[in-house]
Amino acid sequence: MSDQPTQDNESGSSKVWMVIIGVVVIIVIAILAYVALSNQDSTTTGNANPTPVPPEVSVPTPAPGAAVVTANDAINVRSGPSTDYPSYGVAPAGSQAQVIGVSPDGGWWNIAVNPQVIPPGNAWVSGQYVTAQNAENAPVVEPPALPPPAEVPPAGANDPKVTTTDVVNVRSGPGTEYPIYGLAPLRTTGSVVGKSSDGGWWAVDLPTTISPDGIGWVSADWVIAENVENVPVIN
Fold first, then answer.
1. 67-97: per-residue pLDDT in tens?
2. What is the mean pLDDT of the chain?
3. In degrees rounded to 5, what are phi and psi of residue 44?
4. Phi, psi (rounded to 5 degrees) for 59
């Protein structure tokens, strides 16, 4: 008879531990479910978009024996020889481009690009991120004029808005064929009033002293958008 109570105590202890373990498992499952639901909400509501991926710039194959630069890493291809100029996109590591000239300070190379994609037919890459060959006699090329600042009014905390991830052209319409009103510097935040029908451009609030209709357009490739799920399409 003396053994039976001991067996009962052990059985009772086992049941208590099983209950405790079960409660812990339920709590862990509930926490994981909450985290998963929170993550799902943040990605499906469109409240904050991830950093966009810039377009890739493909450069023409250089002529044999020409002066060339080779990208040591992925590199911005810009409209002028400074980070104050907007980027057309990114050339992948290993890309090789024909050299047209060099900036007056010797820090940037002017390269040939596809004129059907980049209308000037030339662009600029930083000498810091490329290796040059046969480029000792490249002519000095004067930089193009910088467009003026766009003076985008700041957005409110809960407004539909975009924040630039680089220097961005603010244009009169949703395409690179439209004239440039001015430049929005890196980390500029502006109120969004609409979007293009293809979703590739955002319409932002501008002073009427810059834009007659009070609207400027920025490419979605160069901005982070927030609270924009209900903005209208502007044709």
1. 999 999 999 999 999 999 999 999 999 999 9
2. 85
3. -95, -20
4. -105, 150
The tens digit of pLDDT for each residue in 220-229 reads 999 999 999 9
CATH code of the domain containing 191: 2.30.30.40
pLDDT of residue 15: 56
Q: Count of domains in the chain?
A: 3
Query: Is 92 domain-assigned?
Result: yes
| Tokens of residue 44, six digits | 């499906």
Q: Are 100 and 110 spatial neighbours (Cβ–Cβ below 8 Å)?
A: yes
Phi-psi region of 57 (alpha: psi -120 to 50; beta: other; left: phi over 0): beta
CB 182 within 8 A of CB 149: yes
Residues 188/193/194/200 CA torsion (nearest 10 deg): 0
Which residue range is the domain that position 30 belongs to? 1-44
| CA distances to 28, 92, 122, 138 from 128, in Å | 50, 15, 19, 17
pTM: 0.77
Phi, psi of 105 (to 5 degrees): -90, 0
The answer to whether position 49 is within a domain reads no
The CA-based angle 184-234-195, given to 5 degrees, is: 45
Cβ partners under 8 Å of residue 133, min gap 6: 67, 68, 69, 70
